[in-house]
Amino acid sequence: MTERISDAEHAVMEVLWKRAPMTATEVAEQVVEQKGWSLQTVKTLLSRLAAKAVVA
């Protein structure tokens, strides 16, 4: 069974789909501007995506 990603994780993926490869900081800069989330929130979402093998 494939693990689904959350809406928040999807928002991070939308940034990556537009301009990958990107560093975590680059992704965070984009998402913080769009969503107003903290850097730590974005890094947590990236960690979850990595654990699900969605990003590397």
Low-confidence sequence ranges: none
Shape: globular
| β-strand number | 0
Continuous helix count: 3
Helix and strand element order: HHH
| Measured distance between first and last alpha carbons | 20 Å
Strand percentage lies at under 5%
Q: How many structural units, i.e. domains?
A: 1
Fraction of helical residues = 55-70%
Features:
3 helices; single chain
Describe, in plain words, how this protein is organized in 3D.
The protein has one domain (7-51). It is 68% helix and 0% strand. The protein contains three helices and no strands. Helix 1 packs across helix 2 (24-35) and helix 2 packs across helix 3. The protein is globular, with a radius of gyration of 10 Å.
The gist of it:
68% of the residues lie in helices and 0% in strands. With 56 residues, it is mainly α.
Layout of helices and strands:
Elements lengths: L6 H13 L4 H12 L3 H13 L5
